[in-house]
Design goal:
This protein is of the alpha/beta class. It has seven helices and 14 strands.
C-alpha cells in the first residue's frame, strides 16, 4: 500500500515511525508546515529529521487543499492518505486524491467531542474517560467510520501534558494493528452513533483567562487544561500577564474576608490566591515578564485602572 502522511505535531511523528516500520506500506511523502508557520500548532514538531531517517520525502505546504499540493499528491497516486495532526479541513478534492480513503486521528472517544481543542475540553468538562480514535475521514467533522479506538481513564489531577502523553501512547499501540488491518484489504469498520455525538469548539490563547470568581476546583481545571503543550491559563496584574503553570486547591476558611483573585498567603514555594468559594489556589509555578514581585494582597485579574 502506498501512503502519504499529512501533519505537523507529535502524533504525526508517531504515525511516520509506524508507517516507515511496516513492510506492507510505502510512505511516499510527508506533507507538513514550513517552519515559519509553526505557530499554527502550539505542539509543532519539525519532521525533517525523522523523514530523512525513514528515507521519505518532505513536502512543505501552508494549505493542503491548494492546487499545488493537490497536484503533487495526485502525481504520487496514494492508496491512502493519513491526516494526523493537521488543523485544516480536508476538502472534497483532497479526499478524492486517495484511491482507497483518507484516515484521520482524533484524541477523543468519537463520536463524543468531535471538533477542536479536545484535550483541554476533556479536562474542562471533567471527563472521567477518554479514548484515542482512528477513523476514515468523510465530508463531516470527525464523523467517519471508526478503524480503531483505545479507551483509558483520566486521573483526578490530569493535566494537558499527561493527557497528551496518554493519547500518544495509545496511538503508538493502536496504529500498527490498524495499518495491518487496512493492508489486508478489508478493514473492520464501526459506524459512529450520531445520537451520541457531541462537539468541541475552537479555543484560543485568550480563552485560558482565569476567572477567580469561580470555585477553586474550576480554576484548577483551567490551569490543568490549558498548560503545556498549550499556551497556559493566565491572569493579570495591571499590564503584566501571569501564566499559572502549576497549582493545587487548598481550604481557606481563615481567609473568608478576602476578594476573589486576591493573594492571601505567601511561602517559599509560591503564593495562594482566594477563589470564589471558601478555597484558594496554591500557585507553585508561574511565569511572567514582570520584574518586580507581586505585592502582598495584590488582586489578580483586575483591569489596569484598579490594579
Amino acid at each position: 500500500m502506498k501512503a502519504i502522511l499529512v501533519g505537523a505535531v507529535e502524533s504525526t511523528k508517531i504515525a511516520l515511525k509506524c508507517l516507515a516500520a511496516s513492510a506492507k506500506w510505502d510512505l511516499a511523502a510527508v506533507f507538513t508546515l514550513p517552519p515559519d508557520l509553526s505557530g499554527r500548532h502550539s505542539d509543532f514538531v519539525d519532521l525533517a529529521e525523522e523523514a530523512a531517517r525513514a528515507g521519505t520525502r518532505i513536502v512543505r505546504t501552508a494549505n493542503i487543499n491548494s492546487d499545488t499540493a493537490l497536484q503533487a499528491i495526485r502525481e504520487m497516486e496514494p492508496d491512502y492518505i493519513f491526516v494526523i495532526g493537521w488543523s485544516q479541513i480536508c476538502g472534497e478534492q483532497f479526499r478524492a486524491t486517495a484511491s482507497k480513503g483518507v484516515v484521520g486521528y482524533h484524541p477523543a472517544p468519537l463520536p463524543r467531542l468531535r471538533g477542536r481543542a479536545v484535550i483541554p475540553w476533556t479536562i474542562l468538562l471533567d471527563e472521567p474517560i477518554s479514548a484515542s480514535s482512528l477513523f476514515l475521514i468523510d465530508e463531516g467533522v470527525d464523523s467517519g467510520p471508526l478503524l480503531g479506538q483505545r479507551y483509558f481513564h483520566l486521573a483526578p489531577d490530569e493535566t494537558a501534558a499527561t493527557l497528551y502523553a496518554k493519547h500518544m501512547a495509545r496511538l503508538e499501540e493502536m496504529l500498527p494493528m490498524v495499518l495491518e488491518d487496512i493492508a489486508s484489504g478489508s478493514p473492520i469498520l464501526s459506524i459512529q452513533d450520531e445520537r451520541c455525538a457531541t462537539y468541541a469548539a475552537r479555543r484560543r490563547p485568550e480563552d485560558g483567562l482565569i476567572d477567580w470568581a469561580q470555585p477553586a476546583s474550576a480554576v484548577w481545571r483551567c490551569v490543568r487544561a490549558c498548560g503545556d503543550p498549550y499556551p497556559g491559563a493566565w491572569t493579570s496584574y495591571g499590564d503584566d500577564r501571569i501564566v499559572i503553570e502549576a497549582a493545587v486547591p487548598i481550604p481557606l476558611h481563615h481567609h473568608a474576608a478576602a476578594l476573589a483573585g486576591q493573594i492571601v498567603e505567601r511561602g517559599e514555594g509560591g503564593f495562594t490566591v482566594k477563589c470564589g468559594d471558601d478555597q484558594g489556589l496554591l500557585v507553585s509555578r508561574w511565569r511572567t515578564a514582570r520584574e518586580k514581585p507581586l505585592p502582598n494582597h495584590a488582586i489578580l485579574g483586575r483591569p489596569k485602572a484598579a490594579a
